[in-house]
Structures are given as C-alpha cells and as structure tokens.
Design goal:
It contains 2 helices and no strands. The chain is mainly α and about 55 residues long.
Amino acid sequence: MTTILKSGLPIEDLRKQLEKASQKKNQGINTSKYSGVIKSQIDPLEYQKKMRDEWQ
C-alpha cells in the first residue's frame, strides 16, 4: 500500500494519515493455490545447495 504525504500539510494531518494507513490489515496472498504446480526433474534441496556453493 502507498500513502502519499504532501509537503506543507500540518503535522496532525500527517499523523492521522499514517495512523489510518497503519490500521489497515494486509490481506496477503493465497499461496496454497500454487502448491505442486511446478513439476521439476531436479531435487529442490540439491539445487539450493548448488546455488549456494556458487557464491563461495
């Protein structure tokens, strides 16, 4: 979420806007719909280890 704070506004108005923005709850995303969608021929753990080893 983006809150636009314009310069020149009184401090009280800025605080009200920030308070209002912080009270809104983030809905997030439903990641369970993506579970098992990608089919891979390689083991994810082995791939992760390989990628980490490349940084060394």
